[in-house]
Design brief:
1 helix; single chain; rod-shaped; mainly alpha
Length: 40
């Protein structure tokens, strides 16, 4: 049971890391899109 809790916690942390990475990627793409619009 204790090992399962640890695995569950690690899974949650990994999910959060991926969510943060995805958000940063979206922000980066949005910034690039704004930059392209500004150039045009």
């Amino acid at each position: 049971m204790y090992i399962f809790d640890i695995v569950e916690n690690i899974h949650g942390i990994v999910k959060n890391i991926f969510d943060i990475a995805e958000n940063r990627l979206h922000l980066h793409q949005r910034a690039n899109a704004l930059g392209i619009i500004r150039i045009l």
